[in-house]
Amino acid sequence: MKTIEDLGDLAGQRVLVRSDLNVPIKDEVIGDDGRIRASLPTLVKLAKAGAKVIVTAHLGRPKGEPNPKYTLAPVAKRLGELLQPEGITVRFASDVTGDAAQTAVQDLDEGEVLLLENVRYDPREESKDEAERGALADELAALADVFVSDGFGVVHRKQASVYDVARRLPHAAGGLVLAEVDVLKKLTEDPARPYVVVLGGAKVSDKLAVIDNLIAKADKLLIGGGMVFTFLKAQGHEVGKSLLEEDQLDIVRGYLKEAGDKIVLPTDIVVAPEFKADSPATVVAADAIPADQLGLDIGPESAKVFAAEVAAAKTVFWNGPMGVFEMAAFAGGTKAVAQALTEVDGLSVVGGGDSAAAVRQLGFADDAFGHISTGGGASLEYLEGKELPGLAVLEED
Questions:
Q1: I need a surface site. Which of 72, 281, 313, 367 has the fewest CB within 10 A?
Q2: 220 catalytic per annotation
Q3: In this predicted model, what pLDDT tens digit does every residue of 283-323 receive, in sequence order?
Q4: Model-level pTM?
Q5: pLDDT of 388
Q6: Distance between CA atoms of 203 and 363, rounded to whole angstroms?
Q7: CATH superfamily entry for domain 4-179
Q8: Is 191-384 in CATH node 3.40.50.1820?
Q9: Is 233 noted as a catalytic residue in this protein?
Q10: Would you state the pLDDT for residue 396?
Q11: 35 catalytically annotated
Q12: Choosing from 34, 153, 333, 377, which is the catalytic residue?
């Protein structure tokens, strides 16, 4: 993949950057600005080179039409606050490629940054029709001279602002995308051992392909979160009212048989009668979950075992919380795993999404880990061995 340096002198050039600024916002307040901060190095580099930087990004799922709930205006404000110490001005256009965007691009000075409104306001962005996506890509390309792909969280999507626009302009990968790919190569090509993968989250079906691809590569697969109950049920245990995917039981039984002691399951579970923060929590053996209870976290003994496996590893990839970390009574497992990752003498990778949100909510600093990915879905698809369209197009001449 070409880098920004391969694009030559960018002074005075209009550079369209696809960033991933999809951050949680409630009542115009940003809950976690991690993805915005991750986008900064590439934007600063381009602005300092004298480029006119035009950023396109999405927020949430507005379903192809303007919706004030999903405006990028609060993101533009935060971006401006973060870039102010660099002396970089941030402007905001109230549409995607329309009159406001075109006028704002014309008025943009060298070294300034312009954020366009949510690209998913335009239904063509996510269209399955190549011609429709291409028409939006033509409009985006008309705003710029070159394209930089720096939104790792969307490189697994074949969308107008990710894939099609790269085929219309001289293009390069931004620093964030290059860093993410470098880490993923370390996880897949020749990882330092012991190599431990920690998987959690709600559904085992979301992680099947990852498990399938990593059983042979990892030394240990630690399973927690809601997905663990399908594993426990596959072993013949009662799981009460816990989350369960019965249609995945045969597949999970196959994994358990194939992987043997590579797969580590919790031996105790924190349960409660209801999915509520104040629901009374108790700890039970993993093979003795009461019928009227549901599991909401791995238990304290399991947390110790998981933490020991992680801390002793040389390479760790973690995707998915161990429990309902948003509720204090059910955050212990996730916190124990996060703490262990900070103690790894090697490469520790937090795989984006809920895992990234969890470590920040639980008070861990980003630099306590080797790498916090900005793209949970993209990371998983890479680890599944899939081709990511947004990366593949960057390799085209």
A1: 367
A2: no
A3: 999 999 999 999 999 999 999 999 999 999 999 999 999 99
A4: 0.90
A5: 95
A6: 26
A7: Phosphoglycerate kinase, N-terminal domain (3.40.50.1260)
A8: no
A9: no
A10: 86
A11: yes
A12: 377
